[in-house]
Amino acid sequence: MKAVFLDLQSLDCDDLDLAALKAEFSHFHPYPATAPQQIAKRVAGADVVIVNKVVLDRETLSAATQLKHICIAATGTNNVDLQAASELGITVSNCQAYGTASVSQHVMALMLALHTNLIAYNQAARDGRWGRAEQFCLLDYPIQELSGKTLGIVGYGNLGAGVAQLAGAFGMNVVVAQRIGGDTVGGRLAMEELLPQVDVLSLHCPLTEQTRDLIDADAIEQMKTGAFLINASRGGIVNETDLADALRRGKLAGAATDVLSEEPPVNGNPLLADDIPNLIITPHSAWGSIQARQRIVDQMTETIVGLKAGEPIRVVN
């Protein structure tokens, strides 16, 4: 089989072992990145296309007459026209649960940084304020313990459950929201019941029509004054203008987000303003540990082995 990887640079920082994956193909051609106008030429003649975020639409798939399988190097499938692939007899697989430990760790790091004012204290030490202190320590910024705080989780799949497990080790009480737009599950709380009681709200749900702008000005007003918000899911779930306003006026004590509504934010973003207090932004890097990225490669190798044996796994169409 012949394979092309259209955007290897989005996964591999020259630190992954691709040998087993490459060995499954008679020809394996990885491209660091692929522009829209280059896609058709590069997929022509390929039996397998591996892709992370490059868009494969109906027109592209229809022209790729030799294509038999698309392997998505991620969980999300929105960049591939699944209906067109199905009609054309092209199977599509994804990768699953590869980043649970990485994302959960990142969420807790953000939560700890906010509660300890870690970034402010680091800056205070580096800019000389600690050196000018009248005593051995500097306590200019509030420090809070996680122990005894209530963590609300929206989206209780692998990632939400992983965060809950780590939070429990810090002595936090965990409550879980009902699935947005889904069936009622015993023991879980409706959003209007959950929001007023949480000290920290952590988002792990997919972006859908039901969850878009889920956390807006109205939802934030239902939260405790001084609560914290963590978003490691998708940017569109939080109304970014409303969040910026809530931080500026002190409704929320702090927030951290690993995602924005446009990525990369080439057109700017309300949350990138310089005057927003106690906000941490990371560049969609929560998933990106070397271990998580290697799991993606290993899962794709398993997928291709299964495909060749007539037993495809992780098929999504």
UniProtKB/TrEMBL annotation:
Residues 108-286 form the D-isomer specific 2-hydroxyacid dehydrogenase NAD-binding domain. The keyword NAD applies. This is Glycerate dehydrogenase. One of its GO terms (molecular function) is NAD binding. SUPFAM superfamilies: Formate/glycerate dehydrogenase catalytic domain-like (SSF52283), NAD(P)-binding Rossmann-fold domains (SSF51735). PANTHER family: D-ISOMER SPECIFIC 2-HYDROXYACID DEHYDROGENASE CATALYTIC DOMAIN-CONTAINING PROTEIN-RELATED, D-ISOMER SPECIFIC 2-HYDROXYACID DEHYDROGENASE FAMILY PROTEIN (AFU_ORTHOLOGUE AFUA_1G13630). Residues 27-316 form the D-isomer specific 2-hydroxyacid dehydrogenase catalytic domain. Belongs to the D-isomer specific 2-hydroxyacid dehydrogenase family. Keywords: NAD, Oxidoreductase. InterPro entries: D-iso_2-hydroxyacid_DH_PdxB, D-isomer_2_OHA_DH_cat_dom, D-isomer_DH_CS, D-isomer_DH_NAD-bd, NAD(P)-bd_dom_sf. It comes from Amphritea atlantica.
